[in-house]
Amino acid sequence: MKGDKIVDILKSGNIVIPIYLLKNYKKLNIKLEEFIFLMYLYNKGNNRVFDPSLFSLEIGSDLEEIMSMVSALTDKNYIKVEVRKNDKGLMEDVISLDDFYSKLSLLVVDEANKQNSKDSNVFDMIEKEFGRTLSPIEYEIIKAWLDSHISEELIKEALKEATFNGVSNLRYIDKILYEWGKKGIKSKKDVLENKKHRNEKIEEKESKKIDLDIMDWDWFDDEE
User: Fold this and answer.
1) Taking a C-beta distance cutoff of 8 angstroms, is the pair 50, 81 a contact?
2) Which of 5, 69, 126, 224 is the 20 to 30 Å CA partner of 211?
């Protein structure tokens, strides 16, 4: 299946590919054309009648390409062609996607475990800094940050800011994150740039204050 043919298939709208699968298809360790064909079968539903001629007609690939992809996906344990009895009691070939669903389930679980591991690092980090166990409400606040796509890196910087100011309170950290969000601060680099800019403004203000003090000085009274 050539690249331009794949584009035509997708443009036709006959194949709907879930965003999750589109983002993770490389983890399936299959070629792009095999993935498109697998999604075609996925859209058809499990245990559909095995009809290579129909597949060839609907996705615009020749019969040889279809059989080649069926063979490849079978070897990689994504599909099986099985003989089953239909409603009329007749034997027919069907394509089973059970193995694909099993692999997909493992992929989802693996991603969930990675996310949970990442999240637990954030919780552990804050508990260690506070020196106590977080309350259920505090867990919900942190989860809300993560669900809002606030990075672990930025949460860590907000925690540092709160600790520096002697505050061990999630509401205070939440306020820091909120203010940073309004300023477009999304990373540690942004935090450092903001601090640098703030310090430069303070230094400039102090410098102007010193200049004004010099100008207001009563030099004659000082000499006496």
Assistant:
1) yes
2) 224
Comparing CA positions, the residue from 110, 193, 180 lying closest to residue 150 is 180
DSSP string for 108-167: HHHHHHHHHHHHHHHHHHHHHHHTSPPPHHHHHHHHHHHHTT--HHHHHHHHHHHHHTT-
Asked whether 62 and 52 are in contact (CB, 8 A), the reply is no
Give dist(CA 119, CA 132) in Å, integer: 17
Q: What distances in angstroms separate CA 176 from CA 25, 82, 107, 122, 137, one per listed residue?
A: 38, 60, 36, 16, 18
Q: What is the pLDDT of residues 68-79, one digit of tens each?
A: 999 999 999 999
Which amino acid makes up residue 22? Answer: L
Tell me the per-residue pLDDT of 112-166, one tens digit each, with 9 for 90 and over. Answer: 556 655 556 888 888 888 888 888 788 888 888 888 888 888 999 999 999 988 8
Tokens 């394509």 appear where?
95
